[in-house]
What does this fold into?
Amino acid sequence: MRQEYLHLQAFLEEAVGGIQPTSATIGRVTVEPDYTATVNYSDLRGLTHELWRCIREHAVNVAALGTTQGDRFPISENYPLLKTYVRSVTLLNGKDADTGSWVQVEPPCEAV
It folds into this structure.
Protein backbone atom coordinates (compact mmCIF):
# COMPACT_ATOMS: atom_id res chain seq x y z
CA MET A 1 0.00 0.00 0.00
CA ARG A 2 1.30 3.44 -0.83
CA GLN A 3 2.64 5.59 1.98
CA GLU A 4 0.31 8.54 1.25
CA TYR A 5 -2.71 6.24 1.71
CA LEU A 6 -1.46 5.28 5.15
CA HIS A 7 -0.86 8.96 5.93
CA LEU A 8 -4.43 9.87 4.89
CA GLN A 9 -5.81 6.93 6.87
CA ALA A 10 -4.01 8.07 10.04
CA PHE A 11 -5.10 11.70 9.50
CA LEU A 12 -8.75 10.69 9.15
CA GLU A 13 -8.58 8.39 12.17
CA GLU A 14 -7.29 11.32 14.20
CA ALA A 15 -10.07 13.56 12.88
CA VAL A 16 -12.94 11.15 13.57
CA GLY A 17 -11.73 9.22 16.61
CA GLY A 18 -13.18 11.56 19.20
CA ILE A 19 -16.63 12.06 17.67
CA GLN A 20 -19.26 10.90 20.15
CA PRO A 21 -22.57 9.28 19.12
CA THR A 22 -25.19 11.74 17.96
CA SER A 23 -28.06 9.25 17.94
CA ALA A 24 -28.95 6.04 19.75
CA THR A 25 -30.31 4.75 16.43
CA ILE A 26 -26.88 4.79 14.79
CA GLY A 27 -24.55 2.14 16.16
CA ARG A 28 -21.54 2.76 13.96
CA VAL A 29 -20.39 5.26 11.33
CA THR A 30 -17.78 4.48 8.69
CA VAL A 31 -16.14 6.92 6.30
CA GLU A 32 -14.67 6.00 2.93
CA PRO A 33 -11.53 8.07 2.28
CA ASP A 34 -10.92 9.89 -0.98
CA TYR A 35 -7.40 8.69 -1.71
CA THR A 36 -6.80 11.54 -4.15
CA ALA A 37 -6.72 13.99 -1.21
CA THR A 38 -3.53 15.53 0.11
CA VAL A 39 -3.41 15.87 3.89
CA ASN A 40 -3.31 19.37 5.38
CA TYR A 41 -3.22 19.22 9.18
CA SER A 42 -4.67 22.72 9.44
CA ASP A 43 -7.95 21.14 8.20
CA LEU A 44 -8.16 18.70 11.11
CA ARG A 45 -10.47 20.62 13.47
CA GLY A 46 -12.78 21.83 10.67
CA LEU A 47 -12.97 18.32 9.21
CA THR A 48 -14.01 16.87 12.56
CA HIS A 49 -16.73 19.52 12.93
CA GLU A 50 -18.05 19.03 9.38
CA LEU A 51 -18.34 15.27 9.82
CA TRP A 52 -20.16 15.75 13.12
CA ARG A 53 -22.55 18.23 11.44
CA CYS A 54 -23.03 15.95 8.42
CA ILE A 55 -24.02 13.00 10.61
CA ARG A 56 -26.39 15.11 12.72
CA GLU A 57 -28.04 16.76 9.70
CA HIS A 58 -28.46 13.60 7.60
CA ALA A 59 -32.01 12.24 7.39
CA VAL A 60 -31.34 8.69 8.56
CA ASN A 61 -32.88 5.88 6.52
CA VAL A 62 -33.78 3.64 9.47
CA ALA A 63 -34.71 0.70 7.22
CA ALA A 64 -31.25 0.82 5.59
CA LEU A 65 -29.51 0.81 8.99
CA GLY A 66 -30.59 -2.80 9.47
CA THR A 67 -29.03 -4.01 6.21
CA THR A 68 -25.44 -5.07 5.69
CA GLN A 69 -24.92 -2.06 3.37
CA GLY A 70 -26.27 0.41 5.91
CA ASP A 71 -27.36 3.95 5.07
CA ARG A 72 -24.54 5.01 2.72
CA PHE A 73 -24.54 8.51 1.26
CA PRO A 74 -22.13 10.75 -0.69
CA ILE A 75 -20.83 14.00 0.76
CA SER A 76 -22.70 17.12 -0.33
CA GLU A 77 -21.21 20.47 -1.24
CA ASN A 78 -22.41 21.78 2.17
CA TYR A 79 -19.32 20.18 3.71
CA PRO A 80 -16.34 21.29 1.58
CA LEU A 81 -13.58 19.99 3.86
CA LEU A 82 -15.33 16.68 4.37
CA LYS A 83 -15.85 16.36 0.62
CA THR A 84 -12.11 16.89 0.11
CA TYR A 85 -11.15 13.92 2.27
CA VAL A 86 -14.16 11.57 2.27
CA ARG A 87 -16.08 9.97 -0.61
CA SER A 88 -19.00 8.66 1.42
CA VAL A 89 -20.35 8.04 4.90
CA THR A 90 -22.19 4.89 5.99
CA LEU A 91 -24.44 4.72 9.02
CA LEU A 92 -25.02 1.27 10.55
CA ASN A 93 -27.17 -0.12 13.34
CA GLY A 94 -25.69 -1.14 16.66
CA LYS A 95 -26.04 -4.92 16.31
CA ASP A 96 -22.76 -5.38 14.46
CA ALA A 97 -20.84 -2.60 16.16
CA ASP A 98 -17.62 -3.86 17.63
CA THR A 99 -15.38 -2.12 20.11
CA GLY A 100 -13.54 1.01 19.13
CA SER A 101 -14.50 4.46 18.00
CA TRP A 102 -18.08 5.21 17.02
CA VAL A 103 -16.75 6.61 13.72
CA GLN A 104 -14.27 4.44 11.86
CA VAL A 105 -12.27 4.86 8.66
CA GLU A 106 -12.75 2.16 6.04
CA PRO A 107 -9.48 0.50 5.11
CA PRO A 108 -8.34 0.89 1.51
CA CYS A 109 -9.33 -1.82 -0.91
CA GLU A 110 -6.63 -3.82 -2.69
CA ALA A 111 -7.19 -1.89 -5.95
CA VAL A 112 -6.16 1.45 -4.41
